[in-house]
Amino acid sequence: AQTVTQSQPEMSVQEAETVTLSCTYDTSENNYYLFWYKQPPSRQMILVIRQEAYKQQNATENRFSVNFQKAAKSFSLKISDSQLGDTAMYFCARGDAGNMLTFGGGTRLMVKP
Amino acid sequence: DTGVSQDPRHKITKRGQNVTFRCDPISEHNRLYWYRQTLGQGPEFLTYFQNEAQLEKSRLLSDRFSAERPKGSFSTLEIQRTEQGDSAMYLCAITFGDLNEKLFFGSGTQLSVL
Question: Which residues of B touch A27 (CB under 8 A)?
Fold first, then answer.
């Protein structure tokens, strides 16, 4: 089975600092999409950032950026200037044909004041 | 607002009972998906629809599960003869636009089977 692996079950960061969440994936496809979703305690899944595999340039959304290493099948999320509201579960996901997303097991991020 | 409304938000039922969940996309959309999320895990794909057609079903979707989208708008997910292992959050998601566009999730229905 093609999988998505998040090796860090839990992480913490001080407010205003930078944190990086790791993700690796497995795929036999050449064209696919990668996502990071945030799930706060409300359990609403919120899209944070998206990366097209055919694009070499790393995606950026305000304080969120990714480091996409296609050959290594690695897709990490960097959160700069961490805020208390960033406290949540973060899920990495790979999008296949038909938009069927395969999610990793998640990383629980705690931002400390 | 993600444009996806799910009802109910919470459902408690006894083992062996049937339950039905509803997903209402508020805004114009392309495809509609059902995912299941157990505590501490990432969501797992169950099935998806393009208009009324159910195009893909996961092997997670046993014979006790059935999903419909009768008019290509709202969708229902029914679980018959519920088991304790069915306890999970059931998430509905929609896409706008082309293949592999972003998925927008509803708030989910939390099912507890006693």
Answer: none
In order along its 113 residues, chain A shows pLDDT tens digits of: 669 999 999 999 999 999 999 999 998 888 889 999 999 988 889 999 999 888 889 999 999 999 999 999 999 999 999 999 999 999 999 987 666 889 999 999 999 99
What is the C-alpha separation between A46 and A25, in angstroms, rounded? Answer: 20
In 3D space, the residue among A110, B104, B13 whose CA is nearest the CA of residue B21 turns out to be B13
Q: How many angstroms separate the CA of residue B17 from the nearest CA in chain A?
A: 26
B100 in contact with A, Cβ within 8 Å: yes
List C-alpha distances in Å: B14 to A49, A88, B8, B19. Answer: 39, 31, 16, 10
Alpha carbons B106 and B43: distance in angstroms, whole number? 13
Which residue in chain B has the smallest CA separation from A95? Answer: B100
Taking the Cβ of residue A100 and every Cβ of chain B, the question of whether any pair is shorter than 8 Å is answered with: yes
d(CA A74, CA A67): 8
Q: Which among B41, B42, B103 has CB closest to A99?
A: B103
Residues of A in contact with B29 (CB under 8 A): none
Please check whether residue B6 is in contact with residue B107, taking contact to mean a CB–CB distance below 8 angstroms: yes
The residue assigned the tokens 């959160």 is A79
